[in-house]
Each structure stands twice: as C-alpha cells, then as structure tokens.
Amino acid sequence: MSDAALAPVPTPSLTAPLIALVGNPNCGKTALFNRLTGARQKVGNYAGVTVERKEGQFVSPAGQHWRVLDLPGAYSLLPTTPDETITRDVIAGTRAGEASPVGLVCVVDATNLRLNLRMVLELQSLEVPMVLVINMMDLARKRGIHIDMARLASELGVPVIEAVAVKAGGEQALLAQLDRLDWTQLSGQPTTRPIERIAAIPVETTHQRVGELLGVGSLVVSDALGPDQPALAGNMFVPIDLLKPILDELLAQGRSAQSKRAWMGVNCIELAGEVRVLRVSRAGPAEAAGLKPGDQIVRIDGQTVDSLQTLWHRLWGGGAPERDVALDILRDGRSLRVPLHTVDRQSAIKQPEGT
Ligand SMILES: Nc1nc2c(ncn2[C@@H]2O[C@H](COP(=O)(O)OP(=O)(O)OP(=O)(O)O)[C@@H](O)[C@H]2O)c(=O)[nH]1
Ligand SMILES: [Mg+2]
C-alpha cells in the first residue's frame, strides 16, 4: 500500500474537481482507483440500477484535492450494455444526480492495445481533458510487447503514462501527471457537454484507425455436402483464429504473403468429374486467351483436371503467380490448347485505400 493510501482521510470536499477512470472492462481501473484512494472510498449503486458506483478522494503531491469516479467498463461510448450507458451518460453529464467529470483518466491494457484503442479514439474525439494510462506494463514487458509511448502521445495529442496498477507506487506517475496538467476547467464543471460529439462519433473512421477485426466473412459454396450428396448451397466460414496471426500483415499491406496466387479470371463448376468454365472475368487473362463459358478444362500444364480441387491446386501450387500455363480444353467436341498468362490475383482486386 502506498504512503498516500495511509495518509489521514482528508475532509471530504465537494468542490474538489472530479475526474473519472474510464476504459474497457478488466483493464485495471479499479486496481488504479484503489491505489489512488486507499480507504477513502464510497461504494454504492448508480440511481435506479444495480450497477456499482465507486467514488473516492485523494490528494496529489502538489496538494490538490481530487474526487475520482471509477466508471463501469466500456468498449465504446456508443453503448450496448447498461454499464456502457452509465459511462456514456456520466461523461456526457446527462445522468441525473451525477456531475460531469472535468477530466478523464483513460486506462488501457498494454497487452491488448488494439482492442482498447477504439475507446481511446472515441474519448479523444470529445476533446475533454484526458490522460492516457497504459496499464499492465509488467505483463506487456514479460511478453516482449513494445509500445512507442512518445509516438502514441503525439498521434493522440494527450499525455501518455505507463502504469502497473497492482504494484505499490503504481499510481505515482499518474499523480505527478495530474499535477502537471493544465486543466483549465479544474475549478468548475465543463461549460459544454460532449453529448452531441458522442452522437457524432464516426464509427467507421474509428474502426479503420484501430484496424479492428469486426467480423468474419463467409463464402457461399455450391457443393457443401460433398461429391455424393445432392448439390446444396452452403457457407464456408473462415475461423477467426486463422485470421488473427495475419491481421497485422493484412492491415499493413492489404494482403498476406500467402495470398500471392496466380489468377486466371474464371469461375468454374465441377459436375460428374468434369470441370467447366461458368463465367469469364472481363479483361482478365482467361478472356484474353479466348476461354469461353461452357469450355471443359481437361488438363492444366499436362495434369488431368477431374475436379475443381486439382485445377486450383495445380494453378496455385504450380509456380509464380505470374506465369504461362497451358490449358487443354474441350469445346463443342473439339480439343484445343489454350496458352494463358496468369496474373497476381491481388492486381485484379480493388486495392484498399491508403496502401
Ligand atoms: N499484472 C497486472 N495485473 C493487473 C494490473 N492492473 C490490474 N490487474 C489485474 O487485472 C484484473 C482486472 O483489474 P480491475 O482493476 O478489476 O479491472 P477494471 O478495469 O476495474 O475492470 P471492470 O471493473 O470490469 O471494468 C484484476 O485481476 C487485477 O488484479 C497490472 O498493471 N498488472
Ligand atoms: Mg472495476
């Protein structure tokens, strides 16, 4: 326990500026709150709901008295849970009986920065005085996670400090920072409420900046039940665990190294051991080579094609993405050799913005 926690309980001062600890669930807000306030806590519920409300007091090294509210964990200011609604309302100053904080201490989990950043960006867009606490730095260091604090501070335009809320003295850097801050509204309540700003938070922009994995796409496949089963459209889902390891690569480059594949620009269908061209992409390699819907692909580079699997396996596994391949086809009962120059599949796909 820190010295501050053992200090005599100061006279409760209703005029002390109110700051709020805010952040995702489990990022260490309450641990930090306990460090700051020690025994000087008042625990109850928010009016009309069973959500716990914790307020406390402390004195910073410069002698400034503060009140601090430990807000319910929230992933966003656009609420989807009762806890998030309270957090949003308190920050906006629209919750009956609750004063709006003059400043925010946004706590994030250093080991999960990307997930936490969404909330940070939303809070930052409110332009309320804010300090960012990168908590759980002990775990981050153990896992070899490096965070460029100076860059984070300059990109966000807010002070950024490291913390280990479960360690004695883990609140000291925050206390010192509070004294350094020029929070012009310290003596009173904010004159403007950020509720309009909250409503105007550009969700898509925030997601884009964070690079959040929002969901997983699915692909309709026409032969979901296998070769001996009746044809039935089904969905093929991409397991999220396979996407996570390549997410950073996808965000940085719009693709993963594995996604370099030869592309012909055809849609094919497999029927009773025959592979036929269903559609030919406009201006793609197959169209340039003269391939037409209905053509049966019999061989690729000399290898017999009797299933979609053998066709794509050979195409993708047979060499560089951009190369010459030889297709033997059957058209109206005639055999034809179609030389075709494949291209990198990525070059045929609309590129993500900013790359
Ligand atoms: N190793 C480590 N653990 C921490 C740190 N801060 C908090 N924890 C632990 O993380 C867990 C969650 O901490 P809390 O303080 O309850 O998190 P919270 O943000 O209040 O969570 P909610 O109230 O659910 O929003 C607890 O088990 C803490 O002991 C830290 O800096 N390092
Ligand atoms: Mg808590």
CATH homology superfamily of the largest domain: P-loop containing nucleotide triphosphate hydrolases
The CATH class assignment of the largest domain is Alpha Beta
CA-based shape: elongated
Judged by helices, strands and strand pairing, the structural class is alpha+beta
**Main sheet: strands, sense, barrel:** 7 strands, mixed
Number of helices, where a helix is a run of at least 4 consecutive DSSP H or I residues? 13
Name of the CATH architecture of the largest domain: 3-Layer(aba) Sandwich
Count the beta strands. Answer: 17
Q: List the secondary-structure elements in sequence, H or E.
A: HEHEEEHEHEHHEHHHEEHHEEEHEEHEEE
Describe, in short, the structure shown.
With 355 residues, the protein is an alpha+beta fold.
Question: Layout of SSEs?
Answer:
Elements: H1 3-6, E1 18-23, H2 29-37, E2 41-45, E3 52-59, E4 65-70, H3 82-92, E5 103-109, H4 113-124, E6 130-135, H5 137-142, H6 149-156, E7 160-162, H7 172-180, H8 195-199, H9 203-210, E8 218-221, E9 234-237, H10 240-243, H11 247-253, E10 262-263, E11 266-271, E12 274-280, H12 285-289, E13 296-300, E14 303-304, H13 308-317, E15 324-331, E16 334-341, E17 343-344
Parallel strand pairs: 1-4, 1-5, 5-6, 6-7
Antiparallel strand pairs: 2-3, 3-4, 8-9, 10-17, 11-12, 12-13, 13-14, 13-15, 15-16
Helix pairs in contact: 4-9
Bound molecules: guanosine-5'-triphosphate (GTP) and magnesium ion.
Guanosine-5'-triphosphate is lined by residues 23, 25-31, 73, 135-136, 138-139, 164-166.
